[in-house]
Amino acid sequence: MKVNKIQTEKNKDKTLRQDTESCILADCSLCPRNCHVDRTAGKTGYCGMNQKVKIARAALHMWEEPCISGTRGSGAVFFTGCNLRCCFCQNREIAIGDSGLEITEERLAEIFLELQEKDAANINLVTGTHYIPQIIAALDCAKKQGLNIPVVYNCGGYENTETLKLLDGYVDIYLPDYKYAESELAVKFSHANDYPERAMEAVNEMVRQTGMPQFDAEGYMKRGTIVRHLILPGHTRNSKKVLKLLHKTFGKQIYISIMNQYTPVFEQKEYTELNRCVTRREYEKVLDYAFELGIENGFFQDGETARESFIPAFDYEGVRKMP
Q1: Is residue 185 included in any domain, yes or no?
Q2: pLDDT tens-digit series, residues 162-198
Q3: Angstrom distance (rounded) from CA 203 to CA 83
Q4: Is 52 helix (H, G, I), strand (E, B) or coil?
């Protein structure tokens, strides 16, 4: 009778979770697009995805910030679809939904555990905004089976704070972008005029959840928020505004990662300034400004980072269950 009672309670919890998940996805407003489509009926909103989870790669990733990848690698899970779909996206293949395999929540939990078995430093959820209910279910399942490494939420920064609150207690490290301080650029490149406001609200919520950055003895981040900013060619003014805003608002509560790895992976017909890499002078100008502001907690990139070889192959590695 005791065993049966425990099993009954588990079934009740699972049913309640599924009902909650269906309720959210049936009128989807997980992100600021607020599409209100019924994804449980196969409909898709701006992200291009219905309720079925699709991922394109799950493998150790060595090219994140040193405190995320280190020498062990970050257990990166690349989700298909995106709520921004920037015109210059380096991961366009998955952002627009052309790549990815459908998996169950149970398989997603297995993938988390398999990455942990490979000695991943963390589980790195890459662009999973539109799958947050399913991710939470998979994390619950994986944690019951022994998942105990930090969870990283790696996103474009265009988030609803109410949705982020669902992740409180599940995510240890937030790794958002802060792409634009200028709404004009947000409209042009990402069709999101409210990006600066929504991203700032999101980072505030992330910092509330994680608190001050914490690291282990090996230098890996255990908790905290790292905000990334990708410099775009010809737009150093926007980058300076981003750095000033972030530093003024958060100071040492966050780390700032200043990135020069912009790669023109396809020709831009309308925004031709994006058809080149960021110059050394542009990057140095932004870095100099960061030093002038007094930014101490941060990362910058050195060497030839603007190469297509830094873009992972979305070849379904780690997605299929091995026999």
Answers
A1: yes
A2: 999 999 999 999 999 999 999 999 999 999 999 999 9
A3: 17
A4: coil
Domain that holds residue 101: 49-310
Which runs of consecutive H residues, i.e. helices, occur in the chain?
Answer: 2-26, 66-69, 92-95, 105-117, 132-144, 161-164, 183-190, 195-210, 236-250, 280-293
Q: Is 28 annotated among the ligand-binding residues?
A: no
pLDDT recorded at residue 312: 86
CA 197 and chain centroid, separation: 18
Which tokens hold the place of 150? 């930090």
Would residue 144 count as lying in a domain?
Answer: yes
The reply to whether 23 sits in an annotated binding site is no
Number of separate domains in the chain: 1
Is 31 annotated as ligand-binding? Answer: no
pLDDT at residue 137 greater than cutoff 80: yes
Q: What is the reported pTM?
A: 0.93
148, part of any domain: yes
CATH code, domain carrying 283: 3.20.20.70
Tens-digit pLDDT profile for residues 221-234: 999 999 999 999 99
Task: Report yes or no on 43 lying in a domain.
Answer: no
